[in-house]
C-alpha cells in the first residue's frame, strides 16, 4: 500500500500474534466475526497494519478484501501506527477561522510529517479532526489528553519540545 506518509515497519511481537490467534480461534465460524476480531486486533496492536489484516483474513478464512473493506470503512479503525504522543489539530469551523491551518502547518514543519503519519522514531503521530468540543479555546491542539488552546503557530515548537 504505497503512499507519501512515513512508513514504519511492522513491529508485532510473537506474544501479540498469539493473542490475536486466540481471538480468531474464539470467533472462527461465527457470522459477523470480522468486526469483533478487528476490534480486538486493534486493541492488541494499536492499529491494523497489512500484516495483521492478513492474519485475520487467513485465520477467519475470508478474503483479505473483506477485512480491508471493514477496516477502511469504520472510523474507529486505524491502519496507521500511533506515536507515543498522539497530536490532533482541530480543523472544525471555529478553530479553522481562528487560524488552525497555520497551527497544523507549524506542527507539520516541526515534526516533518503530515496528518495520518508518524515520526520515524515512533514518538509522535499527527492527525487532524473536525471538533474537540473546545470551540471557545480555538484554535486547539491536543497531545494525547492535554488540550492546548488559543494557539498561534509560534507556540507549537515549545509545546512539542516539552514532549521530547
TrEMBL record:
<dbReference type="GO" id="GO:0050136">
    <property type="term" value="F:NADH dehydrogenase (quinone) (non-electrogenic) activity"/>
</dbReference>
<comment type="similarity">
    <text>Belongs to the complex I 24 kDa subunit family.</text>
</comment>
<dbReference type="Pfam" id="PF01257">
    <property type="entry name" value="2Fe-2S_thioredx"/>
</dbReference>
<dbReference type="InterPro" id="IPR028431">
    <property type="entry name" value="NADP_DH_HndA-like"/>
</dbReference>
<keyword id="KW-0560">Oxidoreductase</keyword>
<keyword id="KW-0411">Iron-sulfur</keyword>
<dbReference type="InterPro" id="IPR036249">
    <property type="entry name" value="Thioredoxin-like_sf"/>
</dbReference>
<keyword id="KW-0479">Metal-binding</keyword>
<dbReference type="InterPro" id="IPR042128">
    <property type="entry name" value="NuoE_dom"/>
</dbReference>
<dbReference type="InterPro" id="IPR002023">
    <property type="entry name" value="NuoE-like"/>
</dbReference>
<protein>
    <submittedName>
        <fullName>NADH-quinone oxidoreductase subunit NuoE</fullName>
        <ecNumber>1.6.5.9</ecNumber>
    </submittedName>
</protein>
<keyword id="KW-0001">2Fe-2S</keyword>
<dbReference type="InterPro" id="IPR041921">
    <property type="entry name" value="NuoE_N"/>
</dbReference>
<keyword id="KW-0408">Iron</keyword>
